[in-house]
């Protein structure tokens, strides 16, 4: 039957010839062990497993009695391209962790552990270690144990130096403590916005396009922040809100819901946590101008030739977080303590709007299945002032 | 990025799943270079099963029952028909292993992936009641080593497979030399076997399964020692191994030496069970009823030196 194929050749083929060196992979796994260990020792729950086929986690020793598990998975997205192109791969792991853990903390869940998927053409120990250190740093910021991961070496699939990353986290929340408490949301509740650290991890296809159009190189000084290159500034890691939010949730029951502002911005995410408009008759009304939009977004807006028209601002809010990475729905009488607790926990928080009756007449433009209304205009930080302050 | 998620995170109620004092077990896996063949051949149905199998087979070897699964699907440009076929395969793999597909992420990244290219990552979480985890601490010399047949190459060693196919001069659409009713691509893409249900049943019904090893990259040589205490090894009688025709062809066509073959491929056995010697028949019966083909391959022996997997005799590589 072998006649169908070429004649057997007198060569020996090994896995290494095919571009995969198991010994190199073993070395890599050994070198990332200590990096992961530091995230495991920071929290109770991870168990010593034999064999290492899967990662073990003890919910009871982590202090849970009747936990609901909450999990999330995400990729690093197009931001990864910039990290690869500029060889600033050290913090992309923080973004990866942030995208996953911020999605579960909005359910009131405490991240327990994290696993990563790391795919690349050919293993490069130095590159791999830098990426993994970023992931471990993100896990530390989130209090999650980096208990495992998969490194896939696929020669010929990814170009040299290219790689892809995906992450996966599991958290837990005691039964009865889960967010959102949709049924509690009512007219008069406040919307509290929590500041983002930058563009976070969404909208990067547009960012790349705008940077290309601007004629600037990644290594040029960022026009909106003279202390950094454009690449560095746009790679500012996504803020991880886990510890601050869990701390605040422990001290107050004033937060009824949280929304992580990611792809499609505030407009796309807020409606997820609201009661359906027809049933409850409420919507989120955001007062633009109640927070200062960081200069990076002003620069991006200018590159996109967006004006301050309602339509253009809506587009900007669709594409980017515009300075708000997380939105909380807060009971009216708890706004002051929630703002104070968030500040104490290290967040910058703003009162950005309220829950209003759906039937309320307004000259406002409505968005996303009538669940979100916007009014006013965005207030941008001055480009020059931002640069002067930072440089 | 294209979201494919309900709410922000997927939730799972352990109590509703009837666990009293569960230990969570998590695993992540990928399909590796097999995905490249699936892309070239344009067959998408089985690759999702592979993805699930790579994770859930890693859970069952810890004695854990898979609870839920999430997938990461990255591509250059979303092809809705291909994506739907892949996700259907993922869902089928989840059903066959009794776990819920509670979430996933679809990423469109034109700069990183070419049009038509895609990659997959999978994450599974399972649970076991405290005290029922595998491997058990009572694995001892004299325990039997039982092999459960694989369905084919599974999801490891595909970089080498691709190289050998290239050397053979055959296209993926050619008749498979080792399985004339199939195309070479179709035969190589046979989905990875899911061992979850049969193994959980054997663990629970016999109480005689002390350890399980999922045979992935590194073959018997690397994967069996992972479940053994340091002072133990295994003796494997290679003549008893039911080598699948695909491996005979790969060995011959690629001129792959026996030890390299054993370090790279499953060679016909995708899961190893370490079983109490007096329960071989009972475990074999339950596994067989569960649809597995089973072979007694050897026994647990005291380890002598570095090589904890001792091979006796030779693989039957004659076709």
Which helices and strands occur, and which strands form pairs?
The complex is a heterodimer of chains A (391) and B (319).
Chain A: H1 22-40, E1 46-47, E2 55-58, E3 67-75, H2 79-86, H3 92-105, E4 110-120, H4 125-142, E5 145-153, E6 163-174, E7 190-195, H5 204-214, E8 221-222, E9 225-229, H6 230-234, H7 242-251, E10 255-260, H8 265-273, H9 277-280, E11 282-287, E12 292-293, H10 295-303, H11 310-319, E13 324-330, H12 335-344, E14 349-357, E15 365-367, E16 372-375, E17 379-380, H13 383-390
Parallel strand pairs in A: 4-5, 11-16, 12-17
Antiparallel strand pairs in A: 1-2, 3-6, 4-6, 7-13, 7-14, 8-9, 10-13, 11-14, 15-16
Chain B: E1 2-3, E2 10-13, E3 22-30, H1 34-41, H2 47-60, E4 65-75, H3 80-96, E5 100-108, E6 118-129, E7 144-149, H4 158-168, E8 175-176, E9 179-183, H5 184-188, H6 196-206, E10 209-214, H7 219-223, E11 232-237, H8 245-254, H9 258-264, E12 269-275, H10 280-289, E13 294-302, E14 309-312
Parallel strand pairs in B: 4-5, 11-14
Antiparallel strand pairs in B: 1-5, 3-6, 4-6, 7-12, 7-13, 8-9, 10-12, 11-13
Helix pairs in contact in B: 2-3, 6-10
């Amino acid at each position: 039957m072998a006649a169908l194929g070429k004649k057997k050749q007198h060569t020996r083929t090994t896995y290494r010839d095919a571009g995969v060196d198991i010994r190199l992979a073993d070395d890599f796994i050994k070198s990332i062990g200590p990096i992961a260990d530091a995230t495991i020792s920071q929290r109770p729950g991870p168990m010593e497993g034999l064999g290492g086929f899967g990662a073990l986690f003890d919910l009871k020793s982590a202090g849970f009695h009747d936990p609901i598990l909450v999990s999330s998975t995400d990729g690093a997205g197009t931001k990864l391209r910039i990290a690869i192109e500029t060889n600033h791969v050290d913090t992309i792991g923080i973004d990866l962790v942030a995208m996953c853990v911020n999605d579960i903390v909005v359910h009131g869940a405490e991240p327990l552990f994290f696993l990563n998927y790391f795919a690349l053409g050919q293993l490069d120990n130095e590159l791999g270690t830098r990426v993994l250190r970023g992931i471990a740093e993100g896990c530390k910021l989130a209090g999650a144990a980096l208990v495992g991961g998969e490194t896939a070496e696929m020669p010929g699939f990814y170009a040299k130096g290219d790689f892809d990353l995906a992450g996966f986290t599991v958290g837990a929340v005691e039964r009865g403590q889960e967010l959102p408490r949709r049924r509690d949301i009512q007219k008069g509740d406040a919307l509290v916005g929590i500041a983002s650290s930058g563009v976070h991890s969404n909208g990067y296809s547009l960012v790349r396009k705008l940077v290309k159009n601007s004629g600037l190189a990644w290594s040029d000084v960022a026009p909106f922040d003279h202390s950094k290159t454009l690449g560095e500034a746009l790679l500012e890691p996504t803020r991880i809100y886990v510890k601050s939010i869990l701390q605040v949730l422990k001290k107050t029951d004033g937060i009824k819901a949280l929304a992580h502002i990611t792809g499609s911005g505030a407009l796309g995410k807020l409606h997820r946590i609201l009661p359906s408009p027809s049933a409850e008759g409420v919507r989120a009304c955001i007062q633009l101008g109640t927070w200062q939009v960081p200069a990076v977004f002003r620069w991006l807006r200018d590159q996109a030739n967006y004006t301050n028209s309602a339509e253009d601002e809506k587009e900007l809010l669709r594409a980017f977080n515009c300075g708000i990475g997380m939105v909380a729905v807060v009971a009216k009488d708890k706004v002051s303590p929630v703002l104070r607790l968030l500040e104490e926990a290290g967040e910058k928080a703003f009162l950005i709007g309220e829950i209003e009756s759906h039937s309320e007449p307004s000259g406002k433009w409505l968005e996303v299945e009538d669940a979100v209304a916007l009014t006013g205009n965005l207030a941008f930080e001055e480009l020059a002032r931002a640069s002067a302050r930072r440089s | 990025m294209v979201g494919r998620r309900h709410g922000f995170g997927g939730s799972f109620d352990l109590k509703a799943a009837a666990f009293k004092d569960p230990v969570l077990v998590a695993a992540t896996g990928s399909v590796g270079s097999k995905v490249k063949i699936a892309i070239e051949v344009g067959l998408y149905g089985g690759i999702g099963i592979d993805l699930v199998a790579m994770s859930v087979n890693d859970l069952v070897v810890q004695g854990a029952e898979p609870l839920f699964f999430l997938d990461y699907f990255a591509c250059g440009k979303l092809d809705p028909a291909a994506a739907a076929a892949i996700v259907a395969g993922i869902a089928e793999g989840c059903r066959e292993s009794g776990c819920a597909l509670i979430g996933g992420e679809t990423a469109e990244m034109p700069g990183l992936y070419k049009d038509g290219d895609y990659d997959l990552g999978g994450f599974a979480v399972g649970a076991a009641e405290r005290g029922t985890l595998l491997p058990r601490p009572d694995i001892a010399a004299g325990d039997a080593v039982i092999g459960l047949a694989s369905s084919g190459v599974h999801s490891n060693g595909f970089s080498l497979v691709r190289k050998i196919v290239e050397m053979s001069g055959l296209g993926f659409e050619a008749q498979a030399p080792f399985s004339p009713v199939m195309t070479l691509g179709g035969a190589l893409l046979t989905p990875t076997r899911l061992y979850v249900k049969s193994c959980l049943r054997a663990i629970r019904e016999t109480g005689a399964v002390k350890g399980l090893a999922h045979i992935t990259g590194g073959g018997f040589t690397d994967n069996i020692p992972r479940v053994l205490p340091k002072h133990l090894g295994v003796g494997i009688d290679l003549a008893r191994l039911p080598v699948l025709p695909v491996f005979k062809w790969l060995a011959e066509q690629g001129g792959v030496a026996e030890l390299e073959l054993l370090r790279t491929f499953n060679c016909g056995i995708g899961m190893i069970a370490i079983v109490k010697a007096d329960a071989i028949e009972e475990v074999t019966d339950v596994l067989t009823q569960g649809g597995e083909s089973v072979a007694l391959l050897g026994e647990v022996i005291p380890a002598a030196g570095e090589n904890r997997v001792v091979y006796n005799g030779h693989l039957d590589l004659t076709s």
